Amino acid sequence: MRDELNQGLIEFLQASPTPFHATANLARSLRAAGYQALDERAPWATEPGGRYYVTRNDSAIVAFQLGTRPLLEGGFRLVGAHTDSPCLRVKPQPEMQRQGFWQLGVEVYGGALLAPWFDRDLSLAGRVTFSRDGKIESRLIDFRQPIAVIPNLAIHLNREANQGWCINAQNELPPILAQIGGQDSPDFRALLADQLAREHDLVADVVLDYELSFYDTQGAAIIGLHGDFIASARLDNLLSCYAGLQALLKAGPEESCVLVCTDHEEVGSTSCCGADGPFLEQVLTRVLPEGDAFARIINRSLLISADNAHAIHPNYSDKHDANHGPKLNAGPVIKVNSNQRYATSSETAGFFRHLCLVEEVPVQAFVTRSDMGCGSTIGPITASQLGVRTVDIGLPTFAMHSVRELAGSHDLQHLVKVLAAFYQSADLP
C-alpha cells in the first residue's frame, strides 16, 4: 500500500509541473472514478449520491460527493489544499540578448528559495492562449526536455559566495536558453507556436498570451539509504492535493465530502480561483439550500486544511520550539497559532487527534518559536469566508519552497488513512 501510494505520488508530481497541469490531472482521475464534470456557465442538476467536480481558471478544482445522509444531519466533510508552488514565471515580453546568449526575463512567484534554482536543468510549462481561425483558445504545454539553465558565477569571481550573497532577481535569474549569432532575433511567441504544433498538432494564427513557469526536470524519487524520503519539487502542496484525492476516492456513499484545491496560496490567495475568492462558496451555494438551511449545514461541517509543515532539521534544530519539532515519518502535524495564522481550535484539534488515535496513525504538533514569525495557509481564509470550523494540518517537510523539497516516505500513507477516515466519519464535533 505504501509503495503504491508513493509511486502514484511520484507520477502525479512528474505530470504536474504547473497548477494547470495539476488541476487537469486531478480532474482526469476524478473522471476515471465516475465523477461528472460541471460547467460553471451552465445550469446544474445535482442529486444525492451524485459525484461531481468543477474547475476554475484551469488551475483550481472543487470535487464533491453528495452523500445519502441528509446534509442537515451530517454536514460536509471538507479537505482543502492548494495547487501552486513558488517558481520562476516568464514575463510578458521576456526576450533578452546578452553576450550572445538568448535569455528570458522571469518574475519570482511566491516566497521561493532562489539559490537552489542555479545549475539545474530547467524546462518550461503552463498555459498558452492563442487565436485560431478567428477564435480564442487555450492549451497546456510542457516542453519536458531541459531547455534552460541558470549557471552560477564561479567561486573565483565571487569569493564571498559561501558567506552568502543577496541574489538580484532582475539581473541574476534570467535563464539561458541558447547561444545565438549577432543577426538572430529570438521570438519567444514563435517558439510557443512551434510547441503548440508539436504537442497538440494545431497551427495558431497568433500566440496572444501565456502563463508559463520554469521547473526542474529532475524527477521525484524515493531516496535515502533505506528509502526513507521522497525528494521532489512541488511537494508543497501537491502532496496534500494527491493525498486528498486518494482519500476522496475511498469515501463511502453515506457522507457528503468535498475536496477543494485552489490556486495562488503562495501569493495570498486573493483571486477568482484562490481561497480568498468566492469559488468554494459559489459552488456550495449552487448545491445547498438557501438561507437558514445553508448556515445550519455549514455549521455542521468541518474543514481539514492540509498544507505541509516544517520538520525539525538536524542542522538547524534551534529554529524550532524545543517541544514542537515535528519529525519526518512520524505522522501528520496539527498546526497551531494563537494569532490565527492557522485556524485550528482545541475542538478541531481534539477531533483530528482522536481520529488519528482511532486509526492508529501517529500525530504531531507544531507551534512556531515565540520570537519568530509564522506562515499561514488556506485554513484561516476559508474559515473566515465560510464560517466553517477548521483544523490546519500537514505532513512534515524539509526545504519548503526550494526547487527540491524532502518529505518522509512513510507519511503519505498516514495522511491518506486519516483523511479517508475523516471522509467516512459519521460524527463531527
Automatic annotation (TrEMBL):
Top-level EC class as recorded in UniProt: hydrolase
GO molecular function: aminopeptidase activity
Residues spanning the membrane: none
Residues annotated as binding Zn(2+): 82, 156, 401
Gene3D superfamilies on file: Aminopeptidase i, Domain 2, Zn peptidases
EC number assigned by the record: 3.4.11.-
Cofactor(s) listed in the protein's UniProt record: Zn(2+)
Domain of life the protein comes from: Bacteria
Any matching Pfam family: Peptidase_M18
CDD domains: M18_DAP (cd05658)
UniProtKB keywords: Aminopeptidase, Hydrolase, Metal-binding, Metalloprotease, Protease, Zinc
PANTHER family reported in the protein's UniProt record: ASPARTYL AMINOPEPTIDASE (PTHR28570)
Family assignment from sequence similarity: Belongs to the peptidase M18 family.
Name of the protein: Probable M18 family aminopeptidase 2
Annotated organism of origin: Stutzerimonas tarimensis
